[in-house]
Here is the input.
Amino acid sequence: MNREQRRKLKLTKEQAETLEYYWKLENTPDELLIDNGSKVKFKYEQIVNGVDYKRLSQKYKDFIEENKDKEFTVLIENTKIHNKYKLVSLVEDKTDPKWLYWVGDLVRIDT
Here is the structure.
């Protein structure tokens, strides 16, 4: 690979973070997948300390802050949209449209 080809491979920080996000979605281990109707809580510390947190919507951040200790029920309405259960919404989320959450940012609660 020559110098010109290497220059073309350089990404901006935003492009690299976006690629990392999609890599994270595509490489979610099956044991993290959550079934419809499961009870979950946010992994609050992981979410607020994540590299993407600063880029998130303020409304989303407010929702996370207000509900950091609350128990939720997973809602999977459309598997095509939710990328094989790697992205889920929550029954108790009354926002319109509902937020989508990566299953790695949720912890299952055994009841």
Q: What stands out?
A: Residues 13-26 form the longest helix (14 residues).
